[in-house]
Design the sequence.
């Protein structure tokens, strides 16, 4: 199975701040990397697919990119509703696997 | 608009079979490229993909659950199903179903682009 290592596990940040979450795969996944947001009530919202493609309705403050083996989710300016859990997930090969999650919390 | 909703027993005893239903609208599981995936999350822990079923009947299961998983669909009634046999306390989790699309863009891309609210399942004697 492909292991997804996500960092940091916790990210204190302030409103208006720019933040980046990193995901690294244990083997090549060829841009098959997706990002999700989970709110405390359990609701899961897809954000980005295939490294950098925004899902419909996702604000342009969210972006995804790749540098070598590192895949990044960046939020350019934090809004109150952005404080949540974030997960990456690879769909390059079965079984699909998720990163351990990043808790983005208000500093 | 795609919507999905999971339903299940809430609580069941160890060694029993867990049966979950995903009722959906806004797409058909007979349309090329459409699928439904199942994902679970133990309380306070991360997400685990369990299985996916596709428009053509093909299924993919997570081998970590060995042969305990069965996924199926009822295309006419817009439902997908997950069965987990021989449950134990480690199967206690919130179970989600998700609309999944297959894209061919020079490479194969799978996108889980809409999720249900989740169904809580507790395994306890």
Sequence:
């Amino acid at each position: 199975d492909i292991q997804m290592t996500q960092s940091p596990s916790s990210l204190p940040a302030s409103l208006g701040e720019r933040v980046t979450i990193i995901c690294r795969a244990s083997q090549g996944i060829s841009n098959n990397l997706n990002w999700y947001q989970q709110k405390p009530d359990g609701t899961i919202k897809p954000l980005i697919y295939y490294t950098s493609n925004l899902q419909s309705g996702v604000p342009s403050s969210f972006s995804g990119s790749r540098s070598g083996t590192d895949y990044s989710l960046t939020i350019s300016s934090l809004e109150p509703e952005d404080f949540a859990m974030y997960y990456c997930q690879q769909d390059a090969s079965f079984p699909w696997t998720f990163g351990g999650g990043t808790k983005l919390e208000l500093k | 608009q795609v919507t999905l909703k999971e339903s299940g027993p809430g609580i069941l005893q160890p060694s029993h079979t867990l049966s979950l239903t995903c009722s959906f609208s806004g797409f058909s599981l007979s349309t090329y490229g459409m699928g439904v995936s199942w994902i679970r999350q133990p309380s306070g822990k991360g997400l685990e993909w369990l299985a996916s079923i596709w428009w053509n009947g093909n299924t993919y299961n997570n081998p970590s659950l060995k042969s305990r998983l069965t996924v199926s669909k009822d295309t006419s009634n817009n439902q997908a199903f997950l069965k987990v046999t021989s449950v134990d306390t480690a199967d206690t989790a919130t179970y989600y179903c998700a609309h999944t699309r297959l894209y061919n863009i020079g490479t194969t891309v799978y996108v889980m682009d809409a999720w249900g609210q989740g169904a809580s399942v507790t395994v306890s004697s």
